């Protein structure tokens, strides 16, 4: 705990203050000293006031060198210095020689370096490879060393060495060492940088230490490794395994080897000879003599000799590895051998000029510790430009005297932190949304610094050079010099507080800020919707600006015409009609730029409707109704808006809630499904739902456009063209898209500026424009305060840890600060999150409505995205969460068709952008986040939770599913309650929750899931015998029903394989057959004979044959019966093989059954190889047979004796084949069947999760499910999400039982935190952003009609004409 706290203080707090510099004890002195000097240079240099050019040069040089160094490590060469040790005549000489330079792999992709050198009487070779991996900041260093000393102090010693094979080998080695060195230097001079290969990039070579004496072990291992060296064997680049097979050696017979190539192999043979004394020494001597002559041609005898040597080496390695298992993965560089003292010095070539290079004596890990890596050239250019801008703007503000005294040092500290973050950024940053290195966060500080400095400079000059024109709003002069000066000073203070601001994490990364800024501008200025991505935000703001530009010209021209008291210019009426039509069209568009290509029919319908709207409202406006009927028309419109809005958005939703006004115990307006225990069909459309739809239609398509046009006509002479255009577009778009709370804004604005403060009014059009922004912020403040008070209420606080108990009383004195934070967070739409889940709240950084800054979607693991080997061996994706995620995916598809229509029907109550709902069923618990709400469309994201969650999740699920109608408490007693009314305790408790139950019987199409334990269904032998019997009958059914039956009976290969089965007395005596399981087992013959098989299954074969269109011969000796017999024996043998021939054991039987169910058939008997003549026999006969037997076995429990009749069994199989999908859950066909709404599905599931190993039979039936809809305070969701992100990413709290995820029923803390993106949360499914359209809802389309198109208009006219003619004929 102490080390983690120290790490947070060092890498979090201190690094956030300095911009990324801190002392790292894991790095060497050079790295820490270099970081310190760089930071001090950036801190002190601004005092000279000549920092722009110097900083520019420093950053250009640093970025260029950093980029070139990484390029050198990626594509450069590695060079090793080799020590040559020679002794002759009693004198020792030492030399340094540069060996062959070869390509060094990326540190992420370890590679080996091989160098060769030597001269004189002695040779000391060192081959070392530096392998490093950047996974988990770990590196692997392995070195292979060989040292062979040869001394010749006297002639006697020389003669003695020449008389033995070892001596002759050493002499020849000394003789050719000089030649090798010369050739090595020539090749090193010619060799240039080579590209990486896939083989070398993926190979990770580890030396193994053998249990020998140190000298022999080192020599043997290094000589073995030399066989893999490309420059010695003439092999392609990259490491390759040692080839020891006989076929490989015989294939190289006749290969011509030079002296250098044979030296390595001779050394290998000599090492093995010394270690085991099992190889003839004269053969080695002859080979070495051939080397001396220059060429050596391999013969078959030599091949046999080398094969024996290789076999001995392999045997040696195997024996020693077995003796020393703990040393198998140990690098050889760590072995305590004599050669370890002579380590080669390794460095990289860094080319300064085409013929000039220097050596780099460090690897990529050191370089990454020194500087952050910029992968692209544009990133380096951007970093340099930002550093220069920071220096320029900082010097500009220093020169102009904005800072004095100690604030100069503080400002220089800010400059240094901004520039240093471009070299070595804070990782992880407090506002980083992801684990690991974040490349974008490095640019945040300099970008914000440039924005603030630019804003300071603009405000300063604006305050000094203001013109005579002044702009005031509600009596406040906006363009006053004092106001600009105060704002400038505020920005200066904000800039000086950068270290604290970035430590707390109040500013997001740059792309998040841009998305947030554009989204807020589009929503509050132009009436747009929320955005789903950065590209969507750019597209939305540009779309709004283009629309404003086009409408502005028309409005400007209309205002230039003459106006009188009784007439409105026609051009202004045209502008009003187009404004309504364009606003309607924009409200119907999604923020996705690809929206046009997705819904062309939607666009065609809108085009027709927009033309009708433009003509209709032009006619209304040009009729001067807005002038002649004043002021009575305004009062009538305001009264209608107030009454319709109150009825539509307050009374009807409250009457339909589960607990209306938290007083009544049941809805006052009930649906037909309310009292149904199990829903049988789609939800019935009630009269109040139709009323809600029509009231909403009239409100947003008639009343609000008329009110806004009325205000446009009355305010046109007093306002400018731009204000009229922006305000009119914003009000109309927001009324079309989200009219839920518009009536409150309209009523308050009219009452406040008409009766209370008439003199302050800036015309009702501007008042409405500003009040919509103000009310949205006030509503957000109300939700934040409600979340805070609900969360920290002392009578329901749940302390998840000791820190929570400490923070509860500590937060009481800071209530005023909490209130200020709530106001600030409401103004900027930032989450207010509980710190570590406690009662202390802090403001987080701004986020868009989408909240999560990366697009995380669940990737389901199945057979379409896993390797075949892993499917057969490890069965990936077999955990419950992965398999159950498909049901949430199907739920998302169902919501895509019905959500928008259900929202318009009022089935989810009132809703706005960003609202969060929880759908709760028997096993499904999903959080639905409404991201974008338009006119007739809703974009949402669904997050599915675990079926069987943690204890905390189960407690919160119980809280949202249990009823409070039976509660009779009042304080400490239980006096009861009035009929249909909640008790005092229940009513009080419901008001102190961050959620509320809206609907208890929300009907949605889905799948009911039934899972039964396969172990209990197959526990006894009788049940396994029934399954095997149905398995055999299933095979017979599918082979006879197949259209390829006649082809199979005529196949020569099949007939040849079944020849033995055609014998009258043939018996299959395979031990896998079991008398307890196989019904046709012949006890007398101890196997399955054809007679015993026919005695049980011949009648079934003949009945299935009779149901064919063209029956075949089905007598006992017919080819059809023989084929059925062979297939049934093969199928049962495959089942026994998969069960490891232990079918009597339940676990083995279930394992084999599951293997066959998923299609893993392993033909192990020679008698069954005839099946390979046509694999369709397996795919279309045996596999469906084993799967159908599982369903028939289930049916056996409901009607045990029904399938004894062949006709009933045949019809059952035929019916299941048509209506039931039986597949393995990892099969892509399973997912396709679920998403295509197949009526029934069945699967055998093998669950391997957290030590559990069980088999389940999963049965799915498509039907209508009943859900509870719970609306959650969206500020509660945003706050808890932000708190989890900060705690896990920045504070690095990885405790799975941390206090912030403990259950808190009043806020559903565990369920909300579980729905975060992985790895912060643990949802089993997160859907992509999905858009639902109202036209896909059949019931809503029946009420309002479908989309308007030319075809629909023609059909309506034709049908109307036919009805008219029929009526006239009757008359």
Automatic annotation (TrEMBL):
Q: Provide the residue span(s) of the region labelled Disordered.
A: 84-208
Under the heading InterPro entries, the entry gives: Pecanex (IPR039797), Pecanex_C (IPR007735)
Biased composition of type Basic and acidic residues is found at 177-187
Which Pfam family, giving just one, matches this sequence?
A: Pecanex_C
Segments forming domain Pecanex C-terminal: 1113-1338
As for membrane topology, the entry says: Multi-pass membrane protein
| Annotated transmembrane regions | 36-61, 381-400, 406-423, 443-459, 465-484, 491-517, 537-556, 568-586, 598-620, 632-652
Q: Where in the cell is it found?
A: Membrane
Keyword S-adenosyl-L-methionine: yes or no? no
Mostly located where?
membrane
Q: Which UniProt keywords apply?
A: Membrane, Transmembrane, Transmembrane helix
Composition-biased stretches, type Low complexity, lie in: 131-164
GO annotations of cellular component type: membrane
Q: Which domain of life is it from?
A: Eukaryota
Q: Give the UniProt family note.
A: Belongs to the pecanex family.
| Protein name as annotated | Pecanex-like protein
Organism field: Denticeps clupeoides (denticle herring)
Q: Which gene encodes it?
A: PCNX1
